[in-house]
Write a structure and sequence with these properties.
- The complex is a heterodimer of chains A (222) and B (326).
- Chain A is of the alpha+beta class and 222 residues long.
- In chain A, 44% of the residues lie in helices and 18% in strands.
- Chain A has two domains: 2-86, 2-Layer Sandwich (Phosphorylase Kinase, domain 1); 91-211, Transferase(Phosphotransferase), domain 1 (Orthogonal Bundle).
- In chain A, the strands form three sheets. In chain A, strands 1-2-3-5-4 form a five-stranded antiparallel β-sheet.
- The model of chain A is unreliable at 211-222 (pLDDT under 50).
- Chain B has two domains: 2-113 and 283-320, 2-Layer Sandwich (Nucleotidyltransferase, domain 5); 124-281, ATPase, nucleotide binding domain (Nucleotidyltransferase, domain 5), CATH 3.30.420.40.
- The radius of gyration of chain B is 20 Å and the shape is globular.
- Chain B starts with a strand and ends in a 26-residue tail after the last helix.
- The model of chain B has no long low-confidence stretch (mean pLDDT 96).
- The chains are: A alpha+beta (222), B alpha/beta (326).
- At the A-B interface, helix 2 and helix 5 of A face strand 7, strand 8, strand 9, helix 7 and helix 8 of B.
């Protein structure tokens, strides 16, 4: 079993299909193991790991149904806190986005925007839309490979936060191309989402102006 | 070179005097304590105006520095409460123009990180900055301090304070919650909200208050509130550490006083083979030296401002500030 990625929340292992699931299988697959964190109380630790494992599996399959490419889930292990899933061959969008031509970047970002809109229309919010969670395949498909913080939430607020997070990821990682990339994401989002997209985008702006940067005098309670 | 820095973004009116060698010659402050309820911006400003002269005199006496030996005046121009900010700005401008000393407006959040680096020796940390007014995970990337996670609604210090007030604990609430939490035995499930890199505490606060009204044990609730809020903070900080692959973690802000939060961050840092730093509490809380030190860093790296550049900005984000000294 080889460690593919040591994440903040889970470790990803790359394994031969034949060894992990069935000896008749071919190729490789990914095992996502949610690791226990010593810093948090065991009740929170167990609860978070189990519920996130089960929920993530369901989100993967519902996202696929909404025409958003995601890996196939082969096994959900709620005791071992493991997901066994298809290995997607391709490149992390995080690593390619800055290097693409302006046009290719626009097309890629529009596609990402369209896929986010499809999720939202299916009642799903991703919860962690960063370019390191997206794999670009040779055929030009973009796989969303991590739904660890996703949820079923059709509210304007949740959708706004989702897009806000993507914008924030673009700002922190792709700060040289943030504006054009985000514009393209929104263009794709609007086209796919249709009516109501404007409301979501307006909510993103509202969310940006919240928090500490709203004068306390303007808050509803103190 | 000697800089006099004025901090007045919220409760604290602080004056710090710092040399360009990084020696803190004075750290004097006066804290506004509301008679009841939370901070009232206008009353905070009135407090700051009333104590300004006395605080300045105390700081100069402590540092054994005469005002004409001061080469630079800096003040926190935001983020913070408008009336409080304007009081500090007015004091800074008065000193600057009367004694003909250059004036610099500096960012409050940048200053927290910079004084932490000076005090602890941390070089390039992922910083968790948690107070009654701010909750942010900050790390340096390409010329600026970038925000890797922050609260989408109330700051974590505010969450603890309001909970304490609602259940009848004396102010300041954070230390009271910590004290009672040590006697809590059972974890009561509360909403744990992490949205990607961002946090939310208002639902947690409301639910904890509701569970108390429904008869929940106060010790257990304090324990559960802390465990839930802090686990979320540490998780987001951990994401930033994993993402940036930095090898240092720093905790600052008033909530840094909390021992349980320190313990949790230390454990997390250890798992990533990162060193963990906390400045002394006098430099974690809002303070004058952090403003003075950031003024020195900026001035020495060529930052100059005209008087009209020094207007306060209540919503001045840390990631809007260019950092020429790094």
């Amino acid at each position: 079993m080889s460690l593919m990625k040591k994440g903040a929340e889970a470790n990803l292992y790359l394994e031969p299909f034949a060894r992990a699931l069935h000896r008749a299988g071919e190729g490789k697959l990914v095992v996502k193991h949610r690791i226990s964190k010593r810093y948090r109380t065991p009740e929170i630790d167990e609860q978070l790991r189990e519920s996130r494992t089960a929920l993530e599996a369901k989100l993967f399959s519902d996202a696929k149904r909404a025409s958003v490419p995601t890996p196939v889930i082969y096994e959900v292990d709620r005791v071992g806190m493991r997901l066994v899933m298809e290995f997607i061959e391709g490149k992390q969008v995080k690593l390619v986005l800055d290097k693409l031509s302006r046009n290719a970047r626009r097309r890629l970002c529009e596609l990402i925007g369209r896929q986010v809109a499809r999720l939202h229309r299916a009642g799903i919010v991703h919860g962690d839309l960063t370019t390191s969670n997206m794999i670009l395949t040779r055929e030009g498909k973009v796989y969303f490979v991590d739904f660890g913080l996703g949820e079923y939430n059709p509210s304007l607020e949740a959708r706004g936060v989702d897009l806000h997070l993507l914008k924030r990821a673009l700002q922190s990682i792709h700060f040289r191309v943030t504006d054009e990339a985000y514009r393209a994401v929104l263009a794709g989002y609007q086209r796919e989402f249709g009516r109501g997209a404007g409301e979501v985008i307006k909510r993103v702006e509202e969310i940006e102006h919240r928090g500490r940067y709203v004068a306390k005098e303007d808050r509803t309670w103190r | 070179m000697i800089c006099l820095g004025i901090e007045s973004t919220a409760h604290t009116f602080g004056i710090g005097i710092v040399s360009d060698k990084g020696h803190i010659l004075a750290n004097v402050s006066s804290i506004y304590v509301p008679e009841r309820g939370g901070i009232h911006p206008r009353e905070a400003a009135q407090h700051h105006a009333a104590v300004a002269k006395k605080t300045l005199e105390r700081a100069l006496a402590k540092a054994k520095v005469r005002i004409n030996e001061v080469n630079l005046v800096s003040f926190a121009a935001g983020p913070g409460l408008g009336p409080a900010l304007r009081t500090g700005a007015t004091a800074a401008r008065a000193i600057s123009s009367f004694f003909n000393i250059p004036l610099l407006a500096v960012n409050h959040c940048v200053s927290h990180v910079e004084i932490g680096r000076l005090a602890t020796g941390a070089k390039d940390p992922v910083t968790l900055y948690v107070s009654g007014g701010n909750t942010q995970v900050i790390a340096f990337e390409a010329g600026r301090y970038r925000v890797f996670g922050e609260t989408l609604d109330i700051p974590v210090g505010n969450c603890l304070d309001v909970f304490a007030r609602e259940v009848g604990l004396p102010s300041p609430g954070g230390p009271q919650v910590e004290r009672l939490a040590r006697k809590g035995k059972h974890y009561i499930a509360l909403p744990y909200v992490v949205k990607g890199m961002d946090l939310s505490f208002s639902g947690l606060m409301t639910e904890a208050v509701r569970k108390h009204r429904a008869g929940g044990d106060l010790y257990d609730l304090c324990h559960s509130l802390q465990e839930t809020a802090f686990a979320a903070l540490v998780e987001v900080t951990e994401r930033a550490v994993a993402h940036t692959e930095k090898k240092e973690v720093m905790l600052t802000g008033g909530v840094a006083a909390n021992k349980r939060l320190r313990e949790m961050l230390r454990l997390m840092a250890g798992e990533h083979e990162a060193r963990f730093f906390v400045p002394s509490m006098g430099l974690c809380q809002d303070n004058g030296p952090m403003i003075a030190w950031t003024g020195i860093l900026a001035y020495k790296h060529g930052v100059r401002q005209r008087l009209e550049d020094t207007v306060v900005n209540q919503r001045w984000r840390v990631d809007e500030v260019n950092i020429p000294w790094r």
